[in-house]
Amino acid sequence: MSDLVARLVLDAHALVGESPVWCEREQVLWWVDIDGFLLHRFDPASGADRQWNLGEEIGCLALRATGGLVLALKTGFAFFDPVTGTLDRLIDPEGDIPENRFNDGTCDTRGRFWAGTMRMHKHGIQPTGAVYRLDPDGTCTKQMDGFWTINGMAFSPDGRRFYFSDSTAAVRTIWVADYDPETGTPGPRRLFCDTRSLAGRPDGGAVDAEGCYWMAGITGGELVRFTPDGAIDRVVRMPVKRPTKLAFGGPEFATGYVTSLGSNNWRETGDAAEAGGLFSLDLRVRGLPANRFGG
Q1: Where does the chain cross the membrane (predicted)?
Q2: What is the pTM of this model?
């Protein structure tokens, strides 16, 4: 839809802007700069963006039902209290794989945090990424493996469909699996979309209130909305080449916030000067409150 225009709301120059999550209680957007080691809290009302440097890569985050955040860091899962700045480390499921870090993640409708890992430097001959489920009681279990760059994790509004992708150029595939919210168990994956016919590779994913799946098309400068049966419903152009993830926010969840990948040499990459910025736009469809971690 060419008439939808994204607006730069924060010229952050993030290295790897990712994991936007809207907090309806505070009316703020949490997001991360993975390679910048930064956790961000953006307040659209004032334009203020508070930052915490956590000293390591921050792959993704989720809101906690009790307040604060759960993070998936380079060294594993941790709780973070933004009031005190306290980081309470929980478990590192890949302490024996130092070349990996956490990347994408999301919560299911019953408060379980799903997060996946990826190899930081693409020099291996085998995919080493895996997906873990952190339960509210603190139990952590590996659920899937064999990924190069796990991405796109999102749940349908009823919690019964689980979307995920691998954004590596050789794979660039989105899958979907039936999901049992009672047990937290996904069924066999099946193809949702092979994105090789699209301009962008599948990065972060989100699901709107109508049950449609949104893909951030990294390197393609676009957002793509799919119907639940995998058909392309609309394509929205972005002002930067490498959008990374969409979150729905605002009082009515009617504003889309999009993070992006930055570059110290944006001219050489052919990207815009605003690369690494945070953008907002009216997508003319509403989202839902983010699922919160139950622990």
Answers
A1: none
A2: 0.96
